[in-house]
Amino acid sequence: MKRYALGVLLALTAACVSNQPRPPGRTPKAAASVNVELALEYMRLGKLTIARGFIERALKEDPDNPQVQATAGLVYERLDDLPDAEHAFAVAARLGKKDPSVENSYAGFLCRTHKAAEGEKLFLKVAKDPAYTTPEVALLNAGVCVHSDGNNIAAEKYFREALAVHPNMPEALLQLGNLLYERDESAEALTLVQRFLSLNAPTPEILWLGMRIERKLGDETSAGSYADRLVKQFPDSEQSRMLQSGMVR
Fold this sequence. Notes:
By secondary structure, this protein is an all-alpha fold. Helices cover 74% and strands 0% of the residues. Helix 4 (66-78) runs parallel beside helix 6, helix 5 runs antiparallel to helix 6 and helix 8 runs antiparallel to helix 9 (152-165). The longest helix is centred in the first third of the chain and has 17 residues, at 28-44.
């Protein structure tokens, strides 16, 4: 659906989510697809009650569709309805056994809800699935999951495995750089920042990391260079605001 058409549809349907009849000739699956898209758009806009109405219509129209169930999981999670979210994600994973991207979504939910061991196991299953064409993403996700649970050894292993698959993967370079910085291995962390910037466009996260590494290494001139780039290129970023308020960790 084109964005301008979606905007018109949002305006027309916001007030009548629960009782709007399905247009003549539209199959339940087609209607569910539209309602999923609307649910995602309203979730993006922060209008979660309306998003819930649309996704629950989609669930009635096409309950055996794993993408519908996975989207329901996202909406319920945003509403902090974790029991319904977990149920929807679990159903999505059961229905989408041949779609590792659905299992990847469920694994992410498990990690976000402090079930790191289960999430890690599922991410590794996804990474080994021949149907999943970006195993480095699942490995990165596994690393982020266990890192958030305090398992830095396993996290480093997964970040390095992701980089072995995709040596220039920006997020893996950033995550491994942050982990090494936290562990006071600043020299190697700095090489990862430099590698990131030689291959990818700068981000506020990588400039923030580079600045802190250089400060830890005692190079205030280089740290100042990263800080200047951060403020000039990303003035509205969270990192820029922290820098200007003196909140340098």
